[in-house]
Amino acid sequence: MQNNFRAISLSHKNAPVQIREIISLDEASIHSLLVKLKEFFSITDTLILSTCNRTEIYYSHDLDLSTEIIKLIGVEKGITGIVDYLEYFKIFNNDREAIDHLFKVSMGLEAQVIGDMQIASQVKRAYQASADLDMAGPFLHRLMHTIFFTNKRVVQETAFRDGAASVSYAAVELIEELTSNTYQPRILLIGVGEIGEDVAKNMVHLPEAKVTITNRTYDKAKALGEEMGFEVISFENAVDAMKGADVIVSSIMKSEPFITKELVSQFEIASYKLFIDLSVPRSIETSIEEVPGVLLYNVDNIRSKASETLEKRLESIPKVEAIIEESIEEFYNWKKEMMVSPTINKLKNALEQIRLEEMERFLKNADDNEKAIVEKVTKSMMQKILKVPVVQLKAACQRDQADQMIEILSDLFDLEKVSDKKS
After folding, report:
1. What is the pLDDT of residues 327-337, one digit of tens each?
2. Domain of 172?
3. Do both 38 and 150 map to the same domain?
4. Catalytic annotation on 52?
5. Do the annotations mark residue 391 as ligand-binding?
6. 68 labelled ligand-binding
7. In the Enzyme Commission scheme, what number(s) does this protein have (predicted)?
8. 370-419, pLDDT tens digit by residue?
9. Nearest Cα to Cα of residue 381 among 354, 400, 414, 411
10. If we measure between CA atoms, which residue out of 199, 204, 290, 302 comes closest to residue 249?
11. pTM of this prediction?
């Protein structure tokens, strides 16, 4: 019988970024943790998802292993007081709730930016990591492929994934649009606070761009640059870097504008220079637009675009939830049939054993032709005898009464004894 599907979740909904950073797992840690879960608990259906917003472990087991798994995370991360973080984890021990949560996470309903497009690929990578270690059995394979199919339906049938719904992603989308005719656009990102860092991470959607970052605290820019593979320069060299950049994104905190019309007037602008001001208060003078070749967008322009998209996404949520519900029902119908499949096989084996014993008993002196006729007749009889209990078992699945029917058939035909004898 299928073990209960469970989940352990630490996310932006119940843990601040300082805690999420401590618990976050990289690829090597995920691999190591999957191996430990397999060795220690013999778990076959396991999925570990770790992003900047969440670290979650999904697993099938008849026991609640949440505390043991959280302690294993502590061992993996070298956190001696991992029990102090238990309050930040949400535990799903109900099969339906865990499956529903995984669907909602995979579709982007639980994302910090609703409808986040990156989550789908992150879930696929998590599944691949499990499959590579044989940590995905028939249950998880079917569940994940149902999720992938559901994701396609959401994209095709709703506006849930349309456009950019965060300021940082909307900024990157704008850059992509305005630099579409520029070969390897040179982008300078000034300031890597919360918004600046998010913009930098979204630059993965511009693989051809040459990105340079700078920050008043150099070490922070250096760490981000090493992570993302971007060039890093000292803040003192920011003005010189502006001269050669096609796009300048500013997200620094300053009481007075950092980029002025007087400064920009000194630049030689061959075709265009795009400025994006994500600072509040603004760090770029609006009058720079008077300089030929200069384009300026501020946080309000971009937020307006993101807000319109977000409204459309929010309007799509009921439709997305309806699609998810349909998919879960379809998955559960399969799951129920999987639950009775071993009993059907045991019943077939029990009847086949009786048939073979009786054939051997009564056909000792029969010729080949007689044996062939009896073989054909008895097999046909067995199929007809099987038909009713199989139909009844599947009907019991739909009524959520499969357990009772399995028990009745097991007692009636002594299926456990037959199974033991066969093994």
Report:
1. 999 998 888 77
2. 167-301
3. yes
4. yes
5. no
6. no
7. 1.2.1.70
8. 889 999 999 998 888 888 887 887 777 767 777 777 777 777 777 776 55
9. 354
10. 199
11. 0.65
